[in-house]
Amino acid sequence: MLRVEHIGIAVNSLAEAIPIYEALLGSPCYKKETVTTEKVETAFFQKGETKIELLESLTNTGVIARFIEKKGEGLHHIAFEVEDIRAEMQRLKNEGFTLLSEEPKPGADQKLICFVHPKSAHGVLVELCQSVYP
Ligand code: CO
Questions:
Q1: How far apart are alpha carbons 129 and 1 in whole angstroms?
Q2: What is the pLDDT of residues 13-31, one digit of tens each?
Q3: What is the 94 CA–ligand 1 centroid distance (Å)?
Q4: Helix, coil or strand: residue 119
Q5: Does pLDDT of 134 surpass 80?
Q6: How far is the CA of 91 from the centre of ligand 1 (A)?
Q7: 47-84, pLDDT tens digit by residue?
Q8: I need a surface site. Which of 33, 68, 83, 92 has the fewest CB within 10 A?
């Protein structure tokens, strides 16, 4: 684990949330990106070396839609940058953590990602991400 790369926040509407976060952070959303594998639309902000990722579901049944239905809008995951995602996945498996996928998946922002089950981490959904084009 190298650093906190970004913090993911689930929102109902990017159109509503983006101006709020621009006002909060005092900097503009610099990128929007659709992640088809996760059926989400994302919007990114940069603060120092950490990003904020807003996530809006593109379907009523996607993971973000179900999260908001259960818990409401808010903090969804913390993403840690890793050098070698496969090595880190293996290390965490050996430590007894449950991973949500066997293989890394393509995520937003040119990353390979894998999630650690929140039950493994006291209720926090942890994302591992490795830059594909560093
Ligand atoms: Co993320």
A1: 9
A2: 999 999 999 999 999 999 9
A3: 23
A4: helix
A5: no
A6: 20
A7: 999 999 999 999 999 999 999 999 999 999 999 999 99
A8: 83
Whole-prediction pTM value?
A: 0.93
C-alpha to C-alpha distance for 4 and 79, rounded to whole angstroms: 6
Residues around the ion ligand 1 (C-beta < 5 A): 8, 53, 79, 127
Ligand 1 geometric centre to CA of 8 (Å): 5
Please tell me the total count of domains within the chain: 1
Question: What's the pLDDT tens digit per position in 91-115?
Answer: 999 999 999 999 999 988 889 999 9
Tokens found for residue 105: 């998946």
For residue 20, how far is its CA from the centre of ligand 1 (angstroms)?
19
Question: How is residue 88 written in tokens?
Answer: 């880190």
Cα of 13 vs centre of ligand 1, distance in Å, is 17
Structure tokens at 33: 């990106």
Report how far ligand 1's centroid is from the alpha carbon of 96 (Å): 22
Q: Residue 33 maps to which CATH number? A: 3.10.180.10
